[in-house]
Design brief:
The protein has 589 residues and is of the alpha+beta class. 63% of the residues lie in helices and 14% in strands. The chain has 3 domains: 12-214, Rhodopsin 7-helix transmembrane proteins (Rhopdopsin 7-helix transmembrane proteins), CATH 1.20.1070.10; 230-357, Beta-Lactamase, CATH 3.30.450; 442-586, Heat Shock Protein 90 (2-Layer Sandwich). It has 16 helices and 12 strands. The N and C termini lie far apart (123 Å).
Amino acid sequence: MQVSIPGPVANPLELDAALLQAVITAGLATVSGVLFRRYRKAYFGWWTAAWTLYVIRIGAIIAFLLTAERWLLFAHQVITGWTALALLWSAVVFSRGTRLKWPYLAVMLFPPLWSAIAVYSLQNFLLAALPMVVFLSFATLWSAFVFFDYQRRVRSSGALLLATAFLLWGLHHLDYPFLRAQGAWAPWGYYLDIVFELAVGAGLLLLVLDDLGRGVHALSALSGDLQRSGSGTDVLDALLHRPLTLGTVRGTALYLRSGEGYRLAGGAGAFFDSIDAALTPEAADTIDAAMSEGRPQEVAVEGGGYIAVLPILSATGPSGALLLAGQGRDPFAALDDDFLLALGQQVGAALDNADLSKRLEARRLDLERLSARVVEQHEEERRRISRELHDESAQVFSAVKMELAMLRDSPSNDTAARLDRVIGLVDSGIAGIRNVVNDLRPSLLDDLGLLPALRSLADRIEARSGLEITFDAPACVPPLSKEAELVLYRAMQEALTNVVRHAEATAVEVGLRVMTDEIVLTVWDDGRGLPAGTTAEQFQRAGHMGLTGMRERVHGLGGRMHAENIAGGGLRVEVVVPAASPEPRPSDG
């Protein structure tokens, strides 16, 4: 059946209805444009383009009704096809996050080619209009399917309204060319289109409100979880599992900065079941962008998914990133960047607090062990002093008493020899008492200063133990407080005592260096060092509290201490204390 191109039909009611639909459609394009400018999401941009083309299509209808110019009918059919393509592409981008590729643009050639054939060669209105309207109806019904599927997954009232409106509107498109060709549906077809467009506009706004409500609720709950969480494990668990309550999120992962790269701190959900999940190049680039710009980022992935990256901000700057992976569209479509940045700062603060709590707990345990060890050492020191006074000084003075008694009871010619023995015993007793007193408080430190006291300590331990001790120090040191001098002395004493007791070493090198505003004491030996695979901290926590006591003394002055095994065997202990002034003080020794 041949249906010719109709002539001018200037029905005032139809023209008024078409003009009203054009205004409503322009308003819908404006709403979509505002949403695109506000949230920078591609599907809002494509909907803006689709509704703009729809306005131009209605303009072509009005102009054709007034003039019956054949080129206007051609333009109307071409724009109808392009509108259908824009609507279809908007739905695909919304549901799958698909990116535009140049080969896709070849489909845009179909509307002008077929319209040219139907309008200029066949001169058939039905053949010109039917394929384009069917295509427009198909795109509208496809949009309905997309929103029905989205509503099924996330239970969004906005998606339900959009799906219903697109479904009914798509069915309405199918009857339009037949009834229009018969002169029917004027102006009621336009009014139905207006109703459907108003429903679509309301659905878009409601969709944004749904996203806002759902996103704010989930992230506010996460904020509460972080505030209530105490340990690092609780914080990590809340951070990884709370975002899974968002509709499209299927997996989460937390990456923290580690040197020049990132390390996976944890993961949850279908996309990150394995804790050893490798960081894809796309995800790594997105993390780099989020960290450098300090803004949330999103990247589409193969198979119609996405990865949204939320930067984690600590007091010193970006420290990591929270990755959210899912299907279709990211869960932060309607959330402000400022809100997300504030959340990232809170997450960073929660992680910092959890790390601080962990370190404070370790510190508390160290202090408890140290306190117990101090009490134990006090008792050991009392027993040692008691033993030395009993075994040495008391025995010496007992012998003196016996010699004096014998000298009194049996005068003889060997009085001088006996008096010499008595003097020798008294000297031994005095030396023993001096050793005890010196161990309690080094008198040389008070009398002669730091360097002579350290040299004397090295000589005395070398004489007692048989170790070969080399002492290297400058001729003078900056002025130090009494507390700093005592800390350096005790640190060297503790380090050398540990070498004698545990290291099985033959030689020790002791060095004292003067830096700009610090004094560095280094003790290293050629012994067996710490057990393999054990750090100094682990060694301390195993009950070896000498290093801990040394560290506490040094930290109390604002200094630092470090102990580590050295290549070839042995242990190196370095103690750094601040100097009171850069001006040196001459050595007294």
